[in-house]
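<tokenise_the_fold>
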Amino acid sequence: MHERSLPASPNWYCSRCSDVSRRGLLGVGAKNIIFLIDVSASSCRVVGELAGHRDLVSGFSFCQHAGQSHVCVSSSNDGSIRFWDSDNKVLIKEHAAHQSPVAAVHWSPVDKNLVVSGDEKGVVVCHWFHTGDTASFFPEPRTIFCLTCSPHTWSTVAVGYKDGMIVLIDLSKKGEVIHRLRGHDDEIHSLAWSWLVGEDALYSRPEDSEANSGAPAGDGKGCYLASGSKDQTLRIWSSAKGKSVMTLKLPYVKKRGSAVDPGVKERLWLHVHWPRGRPTQLVSSCFSGELVMWDLTRSGKQRWTLFGTSSEGQNHNRIVFNMSSVLVQDDRELLISTSMDREIKCWDLASLDCCWTLPTLGGFVYALTFSPVGTGCLALGVGDNMIRVWNTLTTQNQYDTRSFWQGIKSKVTALAWHPKKEGSLSFGTDDGKVGIYDVFSNKPPQISSSYHRKTVYTLAWGPPVPPMSFGAAGGKPSISLYSCAGEGTILQHDPSRLSGEASDIDKLIRDTNSIKHKLSPHTDLSWKPDGKVVAIGNEDGCIEVYQAPSLKLLCSIQQHHKIINTLRWHHDHSSAPELHCLLASGSSNAIVYVHDLRSIIENPPESPVVLTEPHRRLCGHTAKITDMAWSPHHNARLVTASYDGTAQVWDVLQEEALSNYRGHIGYLLCVDWSPVDPDVIWTGGKDFTLQEWRVSKQEFTKPPKGKKMLELKEKTKTNPKQKKKNKKPPGAGGAAPLEMNGGPVAGPKAAKEQEPSEDEEDEVSSTNSSVPTVSSESQRKSSAVVVIKSKDKPDLLKKKKPRSMLPISTSMDHQPKEDLLQDCITLASVKHSKAPPAGCVPGQGEHIHLGLFSDRQALYRMFEAEEAAHVEAAHFDCVVYLRLWSGDLEGALQLATERGELNDHLLSVAPMAGFEVWSRTVEAFVKQLCLQEQYLKAASHLLSVNKLYEAVDLLRSHKLYREAIALVKARLPAEDPVLKELYTCWAAVLEKDGHFSAAAKCHLAAGASFDAAKVIARKSDVSSLRTAASLARISGEVALAQSLALRCAKDLAAALDWVGAQEVLSSQESLLVHRLHLCVAELLAAMLADPQVESQSCVSSHPWVSLGERHVCLQDRIRDVWEQQFGVSQKSEGHCSVGALLQELKSAESPTPTANVPLRQVQLYSSLHLTRAVLSWLLDDEGQLMKELWKAVAWFRDAGHLSVSAELCRLLFPDADVSVFSRKHPKTLDYKEEEAKAAATSLQAFINYQHLYEHWWRSATRITNGSAAVSSPADELKDKVMNGGISESEESVCPATRRCDKLDFDASLLLSEPHAACQAVQRSVREVQERLAAMVLQHGRAQEEKPDSAEKETDGPAQISTTTESPDSPASAGRRPEDQDTLLTLSSKMTEHQKQLADLPDTVKMYPHPDVVECCLVLLHVSKASPSVSESLQQEAKDLLRKYATGPTVHKASQQFLT
């Protein structure tokens, strides 16, 4: 259909948007169309398009199987997959299995019927071409970027994702994942399989062969996969192992005189292509458009080679998106590449040189014009911000084009060659810029300093007119450049001085023709070739012809009634002079008019002539005319371009349609006749293409009509329902073209990286906001917009018409014409007659609408009628405004109040009705706002009527405390009680919600510092307690500060943060004694800790805790640290005096020891008694000293930490003698009071108890080593004693090698008969208590069983057996079978035992000894193994056993010594 063509630019950021068939047919996705290009080694030719997708084409692939190579498949962002016949250029079938935009599609090289596609949601779909079946898989919940089918196994597909993951899936197993290939860090742009089966081709080097040892070559189980990623690397993967075997990093090659900086993240698309016959060679794109051939068998810089190095200018200059290769007839393998530079290049893979380049267009073709001087030089103005200049007559390169972009930065909408100066090309842009390019130089263009406010639509060269024709300092120019733009002005530029100010020719037209009224905005101009007259088209459809140079108006052509789009004078080199004055005009209606102005030009009239009839009328187009051109080879032959999507050739004189061209998709914008071939015409349009076609080869002679035109625009067989689904904005020619051409060129993927200065999206976005067609002004532009908005997006773009305030009168003014004319007569009678016509009262009845044109009373009557209508229609807002207009302000406000429709506007005019009305209206509006929950606005309005307290109450009642406080502090005195009340209320709410810090701030603001500290302390964490203590101290709440500081310090100490604890207490001098307590606790914890266990290391500790002096006893270390660090000694005075400190510490809490207290807490309680002991020592109070020491040791013992208790005794009394208290400060204790003596005796007894066990273990170890046997009862007692007394850690303290012939302690202290008697009675009490508890338990169970006799019979024996005590139980120990315990007998026994306990001395009960019976047994065991125990001691032990050894176990153990 067409000869040569420049197609639309291939889509960007798609992994496979172009492909070549086996026959050398290249398919390229551009916008929503696939262009088909026949390629060979020497040239290329666009042979057709595949149109039908409703959105961007995102993928394209040919079937590479013989007999089916004409079939291809495409995917789109509209979610569809379409199969095409490329020979007949028709749609075969469509699949809609995807719900999201499709990202990639590929036709399997193995199975001729299998097509695989993937969408942005991660869904992979298999399409079976022969059956039409589909199968969906969801291997990964990730965004798919690319996919490719294996050339060896039909079921294997590699999928690349946005996050850098590559997945190999098996289609035969429902999309099961075979391998996940991890290694890339960013988007996977491309995947390519090796065409060679096996994985040994890359390992020609011996050091690499080891990596391939696992998979033998040629086994068919694997092959290589290449991947390219945005992370700037290529990877080669083993599909058998699922691992990367090679990583290639892109080389940083020099370009344009500078090296690529690897640190700068620039735009990159890394496509990889594995040529079919080259198993070790891989082609990839690079940073700035270079192509790289990789030799995978080499290393270093020898591994890669650049394409196109034989000469300059071969490479792309922007990133490359797609590559595909084909084998042509002469066995040459060609590589086709598409790039962001909008060029398609063909490369010879043997020489790596570029064979040819096909330019493409990235925007609407707005203007095209042939140079009148340089024959065959065609200039194109394109919407991608560039000018192309194409030498169409070159024989060596059919597409010899150059692009110009410097200084443009906007769509190029108008072009005009200089009529005499070769290479001088003027251009106009969408942003109002006018400039001149010298196309034979590399210099940037000259830009006019005078800018239009809107789009430039027409440029024309012509003779200068005043004031430029008068000349200036630079002399008179020989020719001027005229520009017409969307704002309706025509500027005259001096081409030699573009920096000077351009002149508006409207001033000359006014002055010359004495015009006072405003001129209609201009939309086009055309100078007659001889320069004598100029035709100017206007927005109102009028064409005016002016005589140069004064621009005297010769005639006005009032033929068109719509905006003039294009004007063209017939050329003056024809043989017939009568044709020289033919003027053709095209407007936004579809008819072309031709006027013959010969008589007017040759004989100018004195006054302007108005022409209303054309010389010729050319009818046939069905949409507006955008451009036209006279044939330079014929007389009166014209070609026109239209929004109906066709170009029409006319014989003007015969008014005959000769040829109609329908090769474009969408409307046409520009046309020109070839200057060298009478049969060739060039057209450009909305489909981003420039097409060359022959008049004689066209099938049609006239433009299409009706449905035929719609079918032509659609180029698809979609039904009307499908059209409605399309949401893309259509072109002004109708909805149909936009369904095919509505998608943006770059698409959603490109949008994220495109540069606005160079990379333009599809012009459809422009059509929604000022698309310049060819030569129009602002209203022509807006007319296109109106069509777009009204036809396709009424809800989004069409403004809703406001409701009329006067609907009755408005409707009555839209009556039939006869009634309206009669109204004029009636109104005239009313105005000019004293007696109005009978029955005519303006503003009432049938003459309501005349109230607007009569007096005020009539207007009020009309208002009343209108109000009644509004009330009936429930349009009360209109009633309010009508009352407002008529001056009934109070009535309007009253109605709005009743309806709850007060607003800010009504409130603003309320003061006009007086203060009382205004105040009442404000109160009503406040109530209305409260119902609408606009409390802040309501409170603000209350302030306007000076109701401050009411505003505060309103805010407080709705819990807007922050705003209420701000209002009070801004407007009321600081001592106002409402402020404190607000703070208190807000604090309570905040505290309830857990916002303690904010609540504390409220309490502080209200002057309640105590409450503030208490609130902060409620959270009870360390930081809150520390803050609360500081706050209380600063606020003067001393007692609270001390309490909180103590709580915080105890928590820190429990967490072993000793330094933090001391810091908290150091802020208050009155807490010195507690600092001393924590000092003792820290020393105690450090000395009791195992130095080999690092896990016991504390969070923070003081340097004086170091265990350097191990031989110093604990109390001496405490005394030294107190004196050095805290200044506390016997000589201290004031608040540091020892007496005062001890008195203060006595009030500290000291609970009763239990077995459930954690060890760290036990240490704190023990250290408290130890602190009191040291203070008593400093006071020489020996009695109190000994009692506190006993309590310190007893805490560990009673809490179950016996080994720690023993260790503390060793730290306090290294010599095992409680009377020797200090080595450094010699002190021998002498007790006068009985209680102190009892405490000392008890403490000494426990020390001796530990030594007794140590002695026993040593002797037992020696006997065991000597193979002596130990009796069974002794072992049993030994186990008992171990479990109840000494732990393993104590056992390990004593070495077994030491001699122990004699006891090194006073063992008689352990055989205290008072304590033995006390312990015997206590054991008896425990036995009675246990028997009582068992009896109560048995009685309770019997009571539960009574209600159900059946259960009682069944479960009775079992329950009796469970409640009956076993012979070995403590409750039955020592009882005879005939004994029958009753509650009475047990109670009497308990009373007897309690009396015995009461008779015992208090010191015996208060300060207990170790178990005397146990000590007797151990001593007797030791006496058997060693002569260290005296006979008298043994006898004493036996006597005590006979008297106090109760219980079966102890009784049994003692029998061997008593018999």
The CA atoms of residues 1254 and 1294 lie 6 Å apart. Residues 1313-1345 form the longest helix (33 residues). The two ends are 133 Å apart (CA to CA).
